[in-house]
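Example for tutorial group B:
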């Protein structure tokens, strides 16, 4: 239960930082991720193997999610 209280107090104290992070780093990262994933999906669909378009999307989404977690980890450490 202590972990929940700690996390809620962190969100309460750093809400402006979290929102600023979301609009300046996370949103553009996921926006670029969407374009890259769509490009590769359309590329593979043009060749005729649209099933393979899901693999680059999975890879880029996983990388984007891991990169977007770094500022939250730094927020907790500081």
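The residue assignment follows.
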């Amino acid at each position: 239960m202590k972990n929940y209280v700690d996390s809620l107090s962190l969100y309460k104290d750093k809400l402006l930082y979290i929102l600023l992070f979301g609009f300046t780093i996370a949103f553009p990262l996921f926006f670029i991720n969407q374009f890259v994933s769509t490009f590769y999906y359309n590329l593979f669909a043009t060749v005729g193997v649209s099933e393979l378009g899901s693999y680059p999307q999975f890879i880029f989404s996983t990388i984007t999610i891991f990169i977007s977690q770094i500022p939250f980890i730094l927020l907790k450490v500081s």
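The helical segments are 2-13, 15-47, 54-77. Compare this with the pattern of hydrophobic and polar residues in the output above.
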